[in-house]
Amino acid sequence: MEDSIVNLHRSVISERNSAIRYQQNEELLYILEETLGLNNSISHSFDSLKTIAVLTSPDKKVRIFTWYLIDDKGVHEHYGFLQTYDEATKRYKVYPLIDKWQKVDNPSAKMLRCDNWFGALYTKLIEVKGSTGTYYTLLGWNGGNLFSQYKVIDILTFNDKGVPVFGSPVFRNYGKNNYIVRVVFEYSKKGYMALNYEKQSYMQRSATKNKKTNQYNTTKITTDMIVFSRLIPMREGLNNPQSMVGEASLTDAFVEQDGKWFFKQDVMAGNPDKPLPPRVYKPRKHYTPEQ
Q1: Residue range(s) defining the domain that contains residue 271
Q2: Number of domains in the chain
Q3: Measuring CA to CA, which residue among 135, 53, 52, 63 is closest to residue 94?
Q4: H/E element holding 155?
Q5: pLDDT for the residue numbered 120
Q6: What backbone torsions phi and psi does residue 116 show, to the nearest 5 degrees?
Q7: Which range, of 162-176, 202-216, 256-270, averages the lowest pLDDT?
Q8: pLDDT tens digit string along 212-258?
Q9: Does residue 34 form part of some domain?
Q10: Separation CA 79–CA 67 (nearest Å)
Q11: Helix or strand (DSSP H, E) at 37
Q12: What average pLDDT does this structure show over 52-62?
């Protein structure tokens, strides 16, 4: 079945006829859902799926498959499945992900379900253990439309009935709005923005001052963090999201502390000594997401 999935998605990628491409994608959705519904499918690695992003949590309780198509108007439509472990039944459940990113107003403040998902091609899954339990942080890319694209930091949790929920107010000290359940960066289709999870450093000011200089003491802290380029206008006077690009020399971050993500400005980003192993993802060149 994995061979069928691999070959079918290759056909989807290479098919130029839009109607045939979407028909093949529907067949792909059916076969993949049937495959994930098989007993012990969680133990199968799906290593040969190079054109579909597959991420598995370290605790083996969550696995997520994502990919996308581009319609005739240049709009990206995202597809996926979420496979989760149900503690009550001791079995895995499969949830189709239905992309509604174009219809979600103010996505930074909206809790979403699988049937109104803010679609993205996920490139990293980070398991976080907080005081209220374990949740999963997802880094992804949304191809947007002809003018804008997006980088996304989303949160996957489960309600008291075990139903998956996207978004959680775990972000601190970021922006003017104190209630942010996901971080969405919109920027120019012609631009670039880095979003990674890696070991970097920042300066932490202490509560004490140096007696000689009367300046606050600072400590350099190096840890794993979500690092990203700061967005700036590509030209002076242009402040709309479609004109924003990532500035390589300005890097900010989110650092996890006690189960929350705290915003840190002006991270000292450089080539990490021991970068975290990246997810192997090798789509064809004409299908490669913005990196």
Answers
A1: 52-277
A2: 1
A3: 63
A4: strand 148-158
A5: 98
A6: -140, 55
A7: 202-216
A8: 777 777 888 889 999 999 999 998 878 889 999 999 889 999 999 99
A9: no
A10: 5
A11: none
A12: 95
